[in-house]
Design a protein that fits this description.
Order of helices and strands: EHHEEHEHHHHEEEEHHHEEEE
CATH class: Alpha Beta
CATH topology: Glutamine Phosphoribosylpyrophosphate, subunit 1, domain 1
Bound molecules: aspartic acid
CATH superfamily: (Glycosyl)asparaginase
Number of domains: 1
Number of strands: 12
Largest sheet: 8 strands, mixed
């Protein structure tokens, strides 16, 4: 059997006019991953392909559609993990690269490292021949001009950044991710994001941190979304792995992890997709919505829900 789950981020989904567009891209993403899995391809290739579709959509906070940081620049994070080999690759604060998830996959495949960050992550991606992208800074910034002003009036320390997210939950959502199970029984995970909008320059979130926002082993694959700092502080990916090791199915794992997020950091802190070796699906979040979809060899067509 094969199975794939994708998400387009947990958060406050308020722009109704976007729902059907996002739904279309999630379907496209599921189809892209499924065509690899159906043909006997690997879970790793499937999640990367699925995430690339979402990075290229321009309507989600990843790749072309990434939100700007506090100084109006785009810095992106992405991570991938292959549960079969227990190998991972990730990039943090990467700039001007069209598909950060591909850069993450190349870190896994071509280096002995797990995480490359900043300018040298971009240089690595370019040296590997990945397409460069120059973002239209003005277009993405205009949306946030008001918030930048509000933020500028206050303290610019990290803490007030989190206060701002509480006030404006729409500042974190639309991160993208995928988890898959292939016909050989291998699991993989991928997550890609522009991070929290108006984040401090240089901030790295949970998505490229293996064991936090992205994780896969022989039992389970997970991709988290929400306030990255909270996801990092709880080591959400590693916890999910421990729960699965103790025999819990993916649906219970996702519920428990999100319960922990709620218990420690309150509502509106995040969500998770999880897939286990038996093909059990877990989707959980404590925000008002989470765009998500799934498709398996047991289904006649993919199922997508936005938000
Ligand atoms: N987890 C992401 C981050 O903190 C944001 C999100 O999921 O929307 O970078």
């Amino acid at each position: 059997m094969w199975c794939i789950i994708v998400h387009g981020g947990a958060g406050l989904w308020s722009e109704r006019e976007k729902f059907s567009i996002v739904k279309g891209f999630l379907l496209k993403s599921l189809e892209a991953g499924a065509s690899i899995l159906r043909a006997g391809g690997s879970a790793l290739d499937a999640v990367v392909e699925a995430v690339m579709v979402l990075e290229d959509s321009g309507v989600l906070n990843a790749g072309v559609g990434s939100y700007p940081n506090l100084v109006g620049e785009i810095e992106m994070d992405a991570g991938v993990m292959d549960g079969k080999s227990l190998r991972a690759g990730a990039v943090g604060c990467i700039r001007n690269i069209k598909n950060p998830v591909l850069a993450a996959k190349l870190v896994l495949e071509k280096t002995d490292h797990v995480l490359l960050v900043g300018e040298w992550a971009s240089r690595f991606a370019i040296s590997m021949g990945l397409p460069v992208l120059n973002f239209d800074r003005n277009a993405s910034l205009s949306k946030y001009r008001d918030l930048v002003r509000k933020f500028g009036e206050g303290d610019t320390r990290y803490k007030s950044n989190l206060t701002l997210y509480r006030q404006y939950p729409s500042l974190f959502h639309e991160t993208v991710g995928a988890v898959a199970l292939d016909c050989e029984g291998a699991l993989a995970s991928a997550t890609s994001t522009g991070g929290l909008a108006l984040k401090l320059p240089g901030r790295v979130g949970d998505s490229p941190l293996i064991g936090a926002g992205t994780y896969a082993d022989k039992n389970i694959a997970v991709s988290a979304t929400g306030v990255g700092e909270y996801i990092i502080l709880l080591g959400v990916g590693v916890r999910a792995s421990h729960y699965a090791e103790n025999g819990l199915p993916a649906n219970v794992v996702a519920e428990r992890v999100v319960q922990l997020l709620t218990l420690n950091f309150g509502e509106n802190s995040g969500g998770m997709i999880a897939l286990d070796k038996n093909g059990s699906i877990g989707i959980s979040y404590n925000t008002s919505g989470m765009a998500r979809g799934y498709y398996s060899s047991k289904m006649s067509e993919p199922h997508v829900i936005v938000p």
